[in-house]
Amino acid sequence: MAYVAPEGEFNRDTQYIETRITADGRDGYPVEPGRYRLVVARACPWANRAIIVRRLLGLEDVLSIGYCGPTHDERSWTFDLDPGGVDPVLKIPRLQDAYFTRFPDYPKGITVPAIVDVPTGAVVTNDFAQMTLDFSLEWAEYHRPGAPQLYPEPLRAEIDDVAKRIYTEVNNGVYRCGFAGSQSAYDAAYDRLFTALDWLSERLAAQRFLVGDTITEADVRLFTTLVRFDPVYHGHFKCNRQKLAEMPVLWAYARDLFQTPGFGDTVDFGQIKQHYYLVHTDINPTHVVPKGPDLSNWHTPHGRESLGGRPFGEGTPPGPVVD
């Protein structure tokens, strides 16, 4: 399967299934404990957002989760981590089965994260950006005691502005570098990415978190790219002006989040590397997965406490990871 853009510049298809699961059920899918299954892959940065937010808000008991393996073929993500390669709740081997149950002629890629309606086996949504906001807003009745405010109303406009630039320039920016099909497209993408990373470094030099003095949705969205930067994007996607570990402010910021319950405990570096180096065969035709880098330094002191801030605001950290 080819990922590099033959025309030069990589442009992501941003049309997703816009159906929403809401408290009032206006799209036909009301919030109901136990009704839905969140399907993710630890390898995927977009899915990693949903894993983090579900855990921070304490939705484990009301929204089950299914994990795809780190690789997929041209057709679909698969449940090859489960016994027999079948999801134990949905009883399907491929996520595409849930997509086709609702849309028999679904023409786009089968993406994670996706939420599936368990009674019908049909996909509800794969709109990853709206999904995590709805976890904060529409699922509020089922948040754990002490759940943080990841999308507080007074800060939403600023969170939206920061998150938009993070998405276009950083989250998608690394892909724009990695999938560029010409030197000029790559050069332009590289410059845009590191301009944004320099802006983030400047913003975070004097404040612990991106917006306000607590963790918000904006931090979740940046973290999932930063945590993949040195293992994958620096080499595989040629984002190599510096490693994350050579950008002092962002490196300390990323370690601060990684060491916060709900962030680092959702990360699997092995699956991350397997996904990118095995799936992108036009970039890495040998399928060789690098052994490095040494990732033990994620646990070293970060010193960001000196900037103040209250990671969970008036709330509390999530408890131990649910089995």
TrEMBL record:
Pfam families: GST_C_2, GST_N_2. GO terms for molecular function: glutathione transferase activity. The lineage of its organism: Bacteria, Bacillati, Actinomycetota, Actinomycetes, Mycobacteriales. Residues 152-276 form the GST C-terminal domain. It comes from the Bacteria. GO terms for cellular component: cytoplasm. InterPro entries: Glutathione-S-Trfase_C-like (IPR010987), Glutathione-S-Trfase_C_sf (IPR036282), Glutathione_S-Trfase (IPR040079), Glutathione_S-Trfase_N (IPR004045), GST_Omega-like_C (IPR047047), GST_Omega/GSH (IPR016639), Thioredoxin-like_sf (IPR036249). The active site is at 44 (nucleophile), 175 (proton donor/acceptor). Residues 294-323 are annotated as: Disordered. Coiled coil: none annotated. Keywords: Transferase. Glutathione binds at residue 77. The keyword Transferase applies. The record marks 233, 276 as: Lowers pKa of active site Cys. This is Glutathione S-transferase.
